[in-house]
Amino acid sequence: MDLQLRTYAFIDRMQPQAAAHVAATCQGDVPIAGMAELFIEAAPGNEIFRCADIALKAADVRPALQIVEREFGLLEIHGKGQAEVVAAGAAVLEHLGMAEIDRVKPAVAGSQFITNVDPYQAQLINKWRKGNLLIPGTSLYILEVAPAAYVTLAANEAEKAAAITLVEVRAVGRFGRLFISGTESDVQAAATAAIDALEQLEGR
Question: Which of 2, 81, 116, 172 has the greatest number of CB atoms lying within 10 Å of its CB?
Answer without folding.
Answer: 172
